[in-house]
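Appendix B. Extra example for self-study. Work through it before the problem class; the solution is given directly after the inputs so you can check yourself.
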Amino acid sequence: LAKTTQPISMDSYEGQEVNITCSHNNIATNDYITWYQQFPSQGPRFIIQGYKTKVTNEVASLFIPADRKSSTLSLPRVSLSDTAVYYCLVGRSYNTDKLIFGTGTRLQVFP
Amino acid sequence: NAGVTQTPKFQVLKTGQSMTLQCAQDMNHNSMYWYRQDPGMGLRLIYYSASEGTTDKGEVPNGYNVSRLNKREFSLRLESAAPSQTSVYFCASSLAGVVQIAGELFFGEGSRLTVL
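Solution. Structure tokens for the complete assembly:
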């Protein structure tokens, strides 16, 4: 299983771009990278998923270098409502057994 | 669409009591999971079920049992509750197993359990 490492916390201000990096040195060939967002007292919510290079959706971008040993979640122009914990998850494409979450990154956005 | 529904949302138990947390999903997902989250911590996998009829241990299975009753329902049982099991429990489901999509989990709202 690919273990993930993320910064414990990050601070930002409204309107800034935030980049959260996740390290997954032993990622396997068939592993995808998925990011989740969790607000207090709620279950995590899927943000974005990718395998290589760059993926973008309406809320975030995911950058994955060629060696895939790390990934970066980019949140453009954050707002106060982006204050949450962000988790990076690595799992195989054909079998989602033992999906293990890391400790996550607590993002605090200030006005 | 209800998604993933967990019951109860809150429960207080005394040490040694037993209880079952219920989880149901209406998305026709194959895989289901139970996680626990302690205050200020990340999620830890208790048990999972990759498909109907199968269950497997996760990171922290001791003190728990599970039943995959059918494709929709996955229950978590505490046979003899202990204070160390005070936590918020999340059930999740995933479509993976049929199509090649990994890691897109849909979570319930959580069940907050306190063991005195």
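Self-check: The interface with chain A takes residues 4, 31, 33, 35, 41-45, 48, 50, 56, 58-59, 90, 92, 94, 96-97, 100-110 of chain B (CB under 8 Å). If your reasoning did not lead you there, revisit section 3.
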